[in-house]
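Q: My collaborator sent me two sequences in one message, no labels, and asked for predicted structures for both. Can we handle them in order? The first one she listed is below.
A: Yes, handling them in the order given. First sequence, followed by its structure tokens:
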Amino acid sequence: MFRERSGARLAAIVELYAEGQLQVFMRKTFPLEQAADAHREVEKGHGRGKVMLDVS
């Protein structure tokens, strides 16, 4: 089931996250310099969670 994207829905998600009621599972974090490796990780299609780029 797909739903429309809206600012109100995003605000509700942000609120859930701020209250600690929303969990985001991160599979692996890569520094920006390894963005190509991050893309290869995503292309594997295996595993649970998000692949993140650290731009700090």
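Q: And the one she listed second?
A: Here it is, processed independently of the first:
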Amino acid sequence: MNPYKFENLMVQLLSVMGYKGDEGQDLVTQKSNDHGIDGIINQDPLGLQKVYLQVKRYAPDNSVQMPEITAFSGSIKLKHADRGVFITTSTFTQGAINAAKDLNITLVNGEMLTNLMIQYQVGVEVKEHYMTYKIDGNMF
């Protein structure tokens, strides 16, 4: 999947999760020169409450590091915001995790992302469904 399609998928995921609100809007920023912001979710019709996203489609062995978190924090501060969500398909270094806590940035790593995509059925579809049964002890 190309990075821009992945950014769209991540914005869609957060919208389905309810961050968009009842009458909010979501958008993916332009492909280049986005100043470190990949997506924006307006949580209300007037866009007074915003969620800013940074998305990195990295290989499992390529962890997001602290400088990427601080750069994203700078980008959201330029938008006069105080929080954001950083999503990666890989993991975060301990330095990145510590910086994110201090900078009010929510982190979503690859494992959590996979679980959210399955839970909210975004970007996935059920291939097979199995039902298992057990005897109801109250009936016997």
